[in-house]
Amino acid sequence: MELSSRKRNLVLSILFFLPVAFIVVMMLSKDNYNPLDVVNESVSELPVNKDKIQLKGHLTVLSFWGENPMEHSIAALNLKELVYDKNKGFKTFQVVVMLPYSAKNEAEELLKEIKSYEDLRFWHLLYADESEIKRVFSTLRSESKLDRSLANNSAYIIDRDMNQRGRLDDRTEKEIENGEPVYGLYDYDCIEVAELKNKMAAEDMRVLFKEYRDKRKGNFAESDKRRQKGIKQSNE
Where do the structural domains in the chain lie, given as residue ranges? Predict the structure, then answer.
């Protein structure tokens, strides 16, 4: 009888403390998440423009549509629906698309097509000379190049300090277990819905916004040191 009572008490204790332990683990995991990696420092500022659009002080998703923006309509729509619509309410967030002056009419038409009565106040079309577009792009770390029309289907995350964000190690858990070589994720393919939705929107942008919220609360003192160490190792 005494043994049975002990077993019952043990079971009740486990049932009581298990949920508590789970909550504690969840709280610790939230507070100790990894910041989004700095994959490249000192991205070049945008050219001076009448609308005063700039990278400094903003969380920017930067893209390049080139001379024929209509050819990138799928990428534009994916970027709008999967990234812009989910983040437009966050302070200082913006999407900036760089294009040559010759693409203005076509770019404005494309913007009308993807707008669908949505608020696009934080989506900017920035027209510039070919040399200025190439200057900004040359300071980005990218797996894809600009084509002859000054375009690609990629999007780049730039933080408020004009550092490019991404992943220094984009391997899956299985690839890590198998000892696969390290590879990064520096630009996000806007044609690949899974990459844009699951990696950029659902994870990386969310982590970056949380990082800035924690910074405002003073809970992120060590983040800069960790990021600096990570980028230094990736460049060695």
Answer: 37-235
